[in-house]
Amino acid sequence: MRYFRYTLLLILMLSTSSLVASDTSDQSVSQIVVEVQLGDQLLQFTEQPRLLDVLQYAITNASTYWPAASLHRRDERMQEKQQQFLQQLQQLRDHYQTKKQQHKANAIQLLYLQVRQWRVASRIPIVIDVDKARTQLAFNPQLDEGAYYLSVPTRPRVIHPIGLYQEAAPMQHQRATPAKDYLVSGYRLPLSARSHVWILQPDATVKQVGVAYWNRQYDELQPGAQLLIPFAPRALPRAYRHLNDDLLELALHRIVVE
């Protein structure tokens, strides 16, 4: 009888844990308030965890590249913005087709196909580092209710050219290499800016960089960065000039995987 009571007590204690296994068959006992997708793991919490509570399930070692770690919150608003952006690209493509400007329509179609494949969610503006989370409360916030994606990668080997670029595929990261040197001659699409690009570093730092002969700047891309080739400022009809800002926002909230 004593063994039976001890076993029952142990079961009750486990059922009140704030972390619930993702394959739990009966979740009606404890309401899930926070879900975190961490690689192949789905972590479910019945109480609002702090960041460190989640990071303890990440596999970290000397090769972990904390500048590229990111936390995104699933957000229908961002997905709606993505769909609105795609719809406007379709309208713009049709506009150029009507005007018999097929080269511009083709450029818009390539951008459409690229952005349609992006996975977007609201990026949480926080520095993620397990050592800082352990020692400084500012780097160990409590997560609000919702569903999140947490990425804790090893050092990336590539950078990601995106936007109005013919080959929006990962390129090998090169040390001591400015943005200009990643741009392959002839790969920028019609309507693209020729004098500048945007660098989106993996820690969400953003900078516009000159790449023309008269304004060239030496700015390196960190491993895992995005190199955004935007629209030229006045290349679009006035009603569509906001698309550059929309493209930059979507890129900032894109979940980048190598």
UniProtKB/TrEMBL annotation:
Domain (Capsule biosynthesis GfcC-like N-terminal): residue spans on this chain: 40-152
Signal peptide limits: 1-21
Organism: Alkalimonas collagenimarina
Residue stretches making up the Capsule biosynthesis GfcC-like C-terminal domain: 179-255
Keywords of the record: Signal
Name used for this protein in its record: Capsule biosynthesis GfcC family protein
ATP-binding keyword on record: no
Taxon lineage: Bacteria, Pseudomonadati, Pseudomonadota, Gammaproteobacteria, Alkalimonas
